[in-house]
Amino acid sequence: MHIGAVADDFTGATDLATTLRERGMRAAVVIEDRPVDPALLADADAVVVALKTRTAPAADAVAASLRAVERLVDAGAERLYVKYCSTFDSTDEGNIGPVLDAVLGRVRADRTVVVPSFPANGRTVRDGLLYVGDDLLEDSSMRHHPLTPMTRSRLRDILAPQTDAAITEIPLRVVREGVTPLRAAIDAAQPGYLIVDAVTDADLDAIAAASSHLRVLSGGAALAAGIDAPAGAVAGTLDPIGPGRLVVCGSASRKTRAQLAHAEAAGADLRRVDLDRAVAHPDDEAAALAAWVRGLSADAVPVIYSVGELADIRVGSADVSTAVEDVLASVVSQLVASEDVHRVIVAGGETSGAVVQRLGVSLLEIGPQLAPGVCWSGASTADGRRVALALKSGNFGADDLFTAAWGVLA
Predict the structure, then answer these.
(1) pTM summary value
(2) % the chain with pLDDT above 70
(3) Which residue spans within 171-311 are E strands per DSSP?
(4) E strand or H helix at 61, and its extent?
């Protein structure tokens, strides 16, 4: 296994696996602690373990990450990759710092790079500051995230409360001096975490090359685009999967809201989750939403969402967020079980994790890319039904994703 990776949510896992597949590797995503037939992974060049640890208590996140690392090391992973969101979603309590501390300690590595930049999706780091498009992170829509509101932009300031390790910033001018000087800067730095500026894909390629000797990498998915595939690697394909369609959105991001607006203008059928009923009577709300989907025409594009505008967001309400995840996961499970739906786009990392877990999926076979960081994947449910899933970070994808994605599948 060329690369063994741990991702803190399910969309992040498919994001990274998509990038590695685009590099020519046969990539797969394994779901948390679920057992997988080793024969299914025998030819994999890259395996990503999808966790649901981004907003978990730090101790739980560390324990789950270490279990995943043990699994990857036992399977022969040559290098390890700790994948987190390109907007560095976390709080002062973690979980990026504690997980990095634990992973480096497990393999006795003394340093790694910290590179969340994803230029294709507007995430860049300059002077140690993380930007979302032209806005500093603290001025972006991530400031209003209901679980991890990002109110600072300097990565050092976000990471420092989470770890006792030394943190070094490597500026863009060093990156652009070339691979050899950059590698020298990485090796000369104090052991710990090296926050490296990156504004373009070429910057990321230089960082990937300069850090190719490190046992552990950390960052968003875009850094992986600079990792060369092993000789003879061939990316996999997906078998045809049935026609029934569904979109579910637990994300409150600006991009997802734009995708909802585009889908509505294009004629998709939209219905918002009743948040109060989702909390008080989740089974009733899930049953009502499933019945609504079944009542639509066979060629409809049903879209179920929780947030259509900023006024819908209930900041800091973890109970509401969890209830929405559970309701959306229940709707998907019911409709897949009844074979009304075979292809599902899920917007939001936490929602994606809830859906995959409810379906009982153990392995995602990575298929065609829909956008940077977004792909179709094939999976089998716990009862053996085949389903295609596109697990999308809330911030990713073109505005027409909810209506254009279906044509990519056979």
Answers:
(1) 0.80
(2) 96
(3) 192-196, 216-219, 245-249, 269-272, 302-305
(4) helix 58-74
